Amino acid sequence: MFEHRRQPLLPWTAYARRQVRHGLFALALVAAALGIGVLGYHGFEQMAWVDALVNAAMILGGMGPMGALHTAAGKVFAACYALFAGLMFIVIVGVLFAPVAHRFLHHFHLDMEEVNPDRP
What we know:
Structural class: mainly alpha
Helix content: over 70%
Number of strands: 0
CATH architecture: Orthogonal Bundle
Order of helices and strands: HHH
CATH topology: Helix Hairpins
Largest sheet: none
Number of helices: 3
Number of domains: 1
Mean pLDDT: 86
Low-confidence stretches: none
Shape: elongated
Distance between the termini: 22 Å
């Protein structure tokens, strides 16, 4: 997926395409996580679809729930979904910044090879 350390640095157009692909994948992860939350709040708490969407979006965004939870199953789901949302945040940030970090480190490695060309 990423170029090897002995390969040249990716041109900007190819890098931009890679970044867009990673952004679309991150967007798909957000949509899937939001869908899980909406279905969970609607199923466990019998919330209206819009209320379930608001609650899921608020949890996924790190703001906290909007409405009160009334059932034990809904509270357990909300706790699990909050943990899931926190992990999804870390995963999504990783997906978005992986190409940036790779490009930076690859560029740094190429600079090191210019200084020490005999290095294996």
